[in-house]
Amino acid sequence: MAAFTVAVFVWCVSCCEVCNAREVTNRRSRAATAAADDSTTESSLWLWRGRWRIPHFPLPTFPSTAHGLTCPPPRWPYLSRPRPVGPRHDPHRQGPRHGAPKQIPPPTPTVDPTLRPPPPVSVPPVAEPTPPIGAKGDGNTDDTKAFQDAWTASCNVEASTMVVPANHVFLVGPISFVGEHCQENIILQLDGTVVAPTDPQAWGGEHWLHFDKLSRFTLQGSGTVDGRGSVWWRRSQSEDLNVDLLDVDNDADDGMDSEDADTQAKEEMSSMPRNKPTAMGFDHCLNVTFSGIKIQNSPNFHLTFDHCVGVLVRNMSISSPGDSPDADEIHLGNSQDVTIHDATLACGDDCISIVSGCSNINIHDVHCGPGHGISIGSLGKDHSRACVHNITVRDVDLQGTTNGVRIKSWQSSAVAVRDVAYEHVSGTYTKRPVDLACSDSMPCEEITLSAIDLRPSSQKPPSHDDGPFCWQTFGRLTTPIAPPIDCVQIGRRSSNRIKSGQDSC
């Protein structure tokens, strides 16, 4: 058995030697032939792999038999001979190209003649908002009922929007937008112009546009609310001065002589009600936003918030002539958490007035003038109790106002004013830069004046009596202050006396 195994082993070794000898002979023969045929051709014993050339050993002719056995194909590097690689075929070698590459035309798509192209998609034009149903929007027809019907329809749908479109003038009489039974998040988009009636028969209340008991309500847009209050102002001036102050020149422009204008104005003043209406008033509202609207020429106050919580007024403007009487622009009473910013205010009275029951009021980035400035009060009239606290007025520009910052209190009244800050207030004044008149019985406390820069207006030369005035005012000053204010008592008031229940808000 052992002799047989040795014989088989010797036989296998001899077969392999025969195969290897034949391969070496064939390889040498092919190399000599290739070198003789073309000396420029790369040797077939080298193979380009990327940028590197490695030895290449082509396969012999297989199968090869020796002594009746088939030799197995050798392993690498006995690989199949690749296509010769020269300078023209090396993609990594930089050199001149021989002619432009052949352009292969794209395949021609086949179109089924039975198919039809899809019809063009027509986009309908965006329609402009239309006036509320029944409204004319011509400035002469009474659209009050149409507005009331549109509000009733919007009131019943949560997050609905009532649109007052642009390019229309709507004549609207006294109207109430009551939200007691309405859904929340209603938007009134006012882009058109709303004007008040001048017919005396149309009036009878204290408000023109009244918003009551609304929750999460937004009034926004780019429209105008015009109170047309000139007739009311003439009557008020006539009653105050006991003379008829008539704008004869303006009436003469309409083609009337002075006698006819005087007669017509007297008739208008005698027929108008004594109670001048407020242009826009919000009562008992929660989380209200007022944005973008312009209010002008209100007979009385322009915009009021009474018993409201969570009010935001921004990016709006109010204007009326500088001699319009009792025409406060924004009036706050018994309201909390109110923010007013980016507003332009010009009128004949206070730009912003803050009266009893207000707290957490933040006013900033406001331009005021003409007018009486930004005022707290008046407070404590007829010996009434009043409380105002946590008021901040900052980054305010006053131009030609009678006063800069002001607190108005009736003497011998129970008035508590504390924690009030005026910061970065600048501009010009015609009477006093600072007028802080607090109550004898309850002085103002924690009043802070910081970075005040108020200069006298060129319209009136300053005098000694036009300087800062303070009465029973305790607080602190931080520089710079112009003009110098020496009437504020630094620190807190003496606590020797027994405090009453009226001393705190």
UniProtKB/TrEMBL annotation:
Superkingdom of origin: Eukaryota
Feature: compositional bias, Acidic residues: 248-262
Pfam family, one: Glyco_hydro_28
Active site (record annotation): H372
Chain intervals for the UniProt region annotation (Disordered): 78-143, 248-276
Keywords from the named record: Cell wall, Cell wall biogenesis/degradation, Glycosidase, Hydrolase, Secreted, Signal
Signal peptide: 1-21
Compartments reported by the entry: Secreted, Cell wall
Alphabetized InterPro entries for the sequence: Glyco_hydro_28, PbH1, Pectin_lyas_fold, Pectin_lyase_fold/virulence
SUPFAM superfamilies membership: Pectin lyase-like (SSF51126)
A GO MF term: polygalacturonase activity
Keyword Signal attributed: yes
Record GO biological process: carbohydrate metabolic process; cell wall organization
Bias-annotated ranges (Pro residues): 103-132
Predominant location category: secreted
Family affiliation: Belongs to the glycosyl hydrolase 28 family.
Protein name: Polygalacturonase
Organism in which the protein naturally occurs: Eucalyptus grandis
